Amino acid sequence: MYCSIILYTMTDFSIRGKNYNCFIAFTLDLISGKWKTLILWYLIEGKKRFGELQKLLPRCSQRMLTRQLRELERDGIITRKIYKQIPPKVEYSLSAQGKTLAPILKQACDWGTKHADAKTNRAVI
Fold it and tell me: Is the residue at 124 inside a domain?
């Protein structure tokens, strides 16, 4: 069920001491960040270990990847499973809440593909 734009933009609420006046701002705050959307995109395929994510995001530093993963975990969008073994093994996956973002991210990818194709005069396959 969709609400009107006015309803989405005229709501004042606070989460963890941060004030929002619209739900889209809240959503973007949760998933924005230089690497968060790409992390989520790769986790749509299934669980990944830290090293796998590092290989998929070679320009993302270890520190930044750790930070983005912690924020996504804190916000309940991903889960982290720690296996007590040597060497330590940690896997990241989308939480139930995070899985609800998959269709949105797929639509964003489709939109980007079409928009990029139009800008570069490439044929859409």
Answer: no
